[in-house]
Amino acid sequence: MSDPVNPHPARAAVPRFRFASVDVKRGSLFALLLLLAAVQTGCVHRRMTIRSVPSGALVKVDGEEIGYTPVSMDFTYYGTREIILTKDGYETQTVMQKVRTPWYQWMPLDAVSDNLLPFEVTNRHEFTYQLQPKVVVPTEELLNRGNLLRSETQIGQ
Predict the structure, then answer these.
(1) Distance between alpha carbon 107 and the CA centroid of its chain, in Å?
(2) Residue ranges of the PEGA domain (predicted)?
(3) Does some domain include residue 101?
């Protein structure tokens, strides 16, 4: 029996099936590429390294101990950080350190660098601090200063 509209129904079904198969394959490939693009989107990895001369100083960043120099830490936000370095035999050093924002993190470029780049960008900041030796005042000198202050206050009465 032959169909008056389609005299060869078996042949007509094959191309439709092939086109549907190609469309499914293309759609699957597109969905896979879209998924990979979403998973592999770029981001900015921010890392700060703190060194001291001499090394081995305890480092606190914004009140949180992060380790002994040289030490690195990841961070999320740019801005001014309070960095405290402490080491026996050296003066404790407190620094308000500005961590500058790179140009590709300025608005509106940050939306692209944080979300749409196909690779990761690493933004590194390195800070080195020279520690000053503690000045140890001899006991006798301290006693002399104390006596001098005492005598000055008695004269002022």
Answers:
(1) 17
(2) 48-93
(3) yes
- Tell me if the pTM is above 0.85: no
Q: Does residue 26 form part of some domain?
A: no
Give the residue from 103, 100, 109, 124 showing the smallest Cα distance to 42. Answer: 109
Domain count, the chain: 1
**Residue 115 belongs to domain with CATH number:** 2.60.40
Domain housing 112: 42-130
DSSP secondary structure of the chain: ---SS-S-HHHHHHHHHHHHHHHHHHHHHHHHHHHHHHHT---EEEEEEEEEESS--EEEETTEEEEESSEEEE-S--EEEEEEEE-TTB--EEEEEEEPPPGGGSTTHHHHHHHT-SS-EEEEEEEEEEPPBP----HHHHHHHHHHHHHHHHHT-
Taking only the tens place, the pLDDT of each residue in 19-65 is 556 666 777 777 766 655 555 555 778 899 999 999 999 999 999 99
